[in-house]
Write a structure and sequence with these properties.
With about 550 residues, the protein is mainly alpha-helical. It is built from 15 helices and five strands. Helices cover about 70% and strands about 5% of the residues.
Length: about 550
């Protein structure tokens, strides 16, 4: 028996993806009932749309925050942080930039880590699948070459059979001219043996002619399929220039952004670099993240479909072997012909119930009988050659040669039959099936899709977080709560470098309302007040404002 398929962790995880009440049975795609096909497709579409909507709404939220501006969205608009002077900040608002920058750097680390895993686990498994498929195609080519060699030798057998048959017909016409009843004299039905041999050779030649025609058609079909598979293997590769560009962007762009955050955390302000981050690197990074989550959404239904096919149909979940046989039955109905047995035998671990070559056993038995009869005939003619020549008045060397050629031809045919059985034995075809379906299709390919999906999902989420927190690479602007904050009607904000000031609120960044003039604050000391004129007072010691 051939090896069984063990469900991998990737298949188990992906087949548990939610389908929102729809079927996850892959065989429904080939069901004769359209409702089952629609139900399965609806589950995949719902999965794709659900994830895409989440990313689209997140992207829209980022755009809305940008449009709202710093007065309403604060640092989420991409504007720099505005916090009170640490000396006057009783709520600890000044700590927020540091926390946001830590989150930004952690998200950057996730982007770069999973970009690496995207390549090392995702694309490496793609390469493993392609390599395994290439080995299977190479083995298929070897089997096809052996089958073609058998076909060539069978053609030789067929041609020899025709030649032997024609020679036998000529001999039968004048086998024993002096004694037509030679069978009674030698106690052997020579004419019957010769006529039987003639019929057998004619049947053999016709069988080989028809069989070769079918064999050549099937070999051409299989070779065409192998070429298409090889072409697909070459074309279906994720490591093209677009993917290289995407992965490079996921490594290089976050590095520049992380350097910008590190500089401001070290109180190093390089305005040209910050402008480059704002107007070049961050937009380019945003485009890369959008492309990444589009890839993520597209890979999700493909991954789910592959896992469904590899898990098997129905409640049994017997793996891809069950899927293939169920799909065939859905397509061909109740067909119980040799093709079903052929498919069932090699996909069901060479189950004897589906053995498709019973007819070869009877054919081999007939071939053995023919070999025995020709050996007997050859021995009989050789042992009675003198008597036959005396009774018939002719030489029987040609007859002996014909029988010998017939026997050699049958031996050659037997060798080709044995080679054919060796070619189609379980370990050859089933091993080819296991390498192609179990390993390349349902192990490496599904693992690759799972890692590509998981990596692109984490990269998309972390990348969107970085875009939302892009103010992390801008310097903090502090609100000055000194003397001017109390006496002036409009508050002032100053950056860490004291180069700029704006009339904004320290928390909401809205313009500050006029500060009412503060009344005198008395302290428990003596106060001397004398009026100097109508609107002037002289305050003695002990009065503080």
């Amino acid at each position: 028996r051939g090896p069984s398929y063990e469900l991998t962790r990737s298949v188990n995880n992906l087949r548990q993806l939610p389908r929102f009440g729809h079927s996850s049975d892959f065989t429904a795609v080939f069901s004769p009932y359209q409702d089952e096909q629609v139900d399965y497709a609806a589950g995949l579409i719902a999965l794709f749309v659900f994830l895409l909507i989440i990313f689209i709404f997140w992207t829209i939220a980022i755009v809305v925050f940008k449009a709202m501006g710093p007065a309403n969205a604060g640092f989420l608009s991409g504007y720099h942080f505005v916090v009170p002077d640490p000396a006057e900040d009783v709520k600890g608002i000044y700590k927020r930039p540091f926390r946001v920058r830590v989150v930004f750097l952690v998200a950057t680390g996730f982007v770069m880590l999973f970009a690496f895993l995207f390549v090392s686990m995702g694309l490496t498994n793609v390469n493993n699948a392609v390599t395994t498929m290439g080995k299977s195609l190479k083995r298929t080519e070897e089997l096809l070459q052996n089958a073609e060699m058998i076909g060539v030798e069978l053609e030789t057998v067929g041609t020899n059979s025709i030649t032997i048959r024609d020679a036998a017909v000529n001999e039968l016409e004048n086998l024993c001219p002096n004694n037509p009843n030679i069978a009674e004299a030698v106690n052997m039905d020579i004419n019957g043996i010769a006529e039987q041999a003639q019929g057998d050779l004619t049947t053999l030649a016709d069988f080989i002619s028809v069989g070769l025609e079918v064999l050549n058609e099937n070999l051409a079909l299989i070779r065409s399929f192998a070429r298409e598979a090889e072409k697909t293997t070459v074309d279906v590769t994720f490591w093209n220039w677009q993917m290289k560009l995407l992965v490079s962007g996921l490594f290089i762009l976050p590095s520049f952004l992380a350097v910008g955050v590190g500089l401001v955390m070290l109180d190093v302000e390089i305005k040209p670099y910050q402008k480059a981050l704002t107007y070049f690197f961050m937009p380019l990074f945003a485009v890369t993240i959008v492309a990444c989550y589009v890839v993520c959404c597209a890979i999700l239904p493909i991954s789910a479909t592959s896992a469904d096919a590899c898990a098997g149909g129905g409640a049994v979940r017997a793996g891809p072997d069950d899927t293939i046989l169920t799909v065939y039955r859905n397509i061909r109905g109740e067909d119980t012909g040799p093709i079903l047995n052929f498919v069932g035998f090699y996909t069901q671990r060479c189950d004897p119930e589906y053995y498709p070559f019973d007819f070869l056993s009877s054919y081999m038995n007939d071939l053995d009988k023919a070999l025995d009869s020709t050996n007997t005939a050859s021995d009989a003619v050789r042992d009675n050659q003198g008597l036959l020549e005396e009774q018939c008045g002719r030489n029987f060397d040609n007859v002996i040669d014909i029988v010998k050629n017939m026997n050699d031809n049958l031996k050659l045919l037997r060798r080709q039959a044995d080679r054919s059985l060796d070619l189609i034995q379980c370990k050859n075809i089933n091993q080819l099936y296991v390498n192609t379906v179990h390993e390349a299709g349902c192990t490496y390919s599904v693992d690759a899709l799972a890692w590509i999906f998981a990596s692109s999902l984490v990269i998309s989420v972390a990348g969107l977080i970085m875009i939302m927190l892009r103010s992390a690479y801008l310097p903090v602007e502090y609100l000055d709560l000194g003397e001017e904050w109390i006496t002036n009607k409009v508050g002032h904000t100053k950056s860490a470098s004291k180069d700029s000031e704006e009339g904004t609120d320290p928390v909401t960044t809205r313009p500050l309302e006029a500060v009412p003039e503060a009344g005198p604050i008395f302290v428990p000391q003596s106060v001397n007040i004398s009026q100097m004129n109508d609107d002037e007072f002289e305050m003695g010691p002990g009065y503080d404002l």
